[in-house]
Prior knowledge:
Blueprint: E1 2-8, H1 16-24, E2 29-34, H2 43-51, E3 57-60, H3 70-82, E4 86-89, H4 100-133, H5 146-154, H6 159-166, H7 170-176
Parallel strand pairs: 1-2, 1-3, 3-4
Amino acid sequence: MLVGYARVSTTDQDLTIQLERLTTMGCERVFSEKRSGTTADRPELQNCLDFVREGDVLLVTRLDRFARSMVDLHNMLSRLSSRGVGFRCVDQAGVDTTTPHGKLMLGVLGSVAEFETGLRAERQREGIDKAKAAGAYKGGKTRIDADRVRSMLAEGMNPSVVARTMDISRQSVYRLMPSDDL
């Protein structure tokens, strides 16, 4: 059985193209989710890995939709291999763990993908550092009115009520409480 896995990083991105390609390639079952590839918390990927059985082939459109790093890639492929499950990548056509050549291509492409991820992170860090030096980067917007939270607490309001009123977590309220109130 061909089983597909599709992923996009953010909720405003669209899975349609990946889903259509996987269906066109003959996938009988496709797992999909909108989660960042940098997180290990990808429930549909775990469901997919649990679902596949010996003789199945897991199909993805691109390697970066599947694995976060070379270590992650090798761990998942090892898990699949130990269960007799093959792996193929549509856009990197040479990647097919059911053939020796495909296994070699997978290693090479996985290394290149990890290298590119590292370069992207390095360029991003350089851009942020440059913007900070120029005074243009001040971090994220302040989302909590700390003075208002402290004022509400000073009036004797319960931290849980403050959190609900301000639509913030209780932990955020506790972080803003004077240490002698804890």
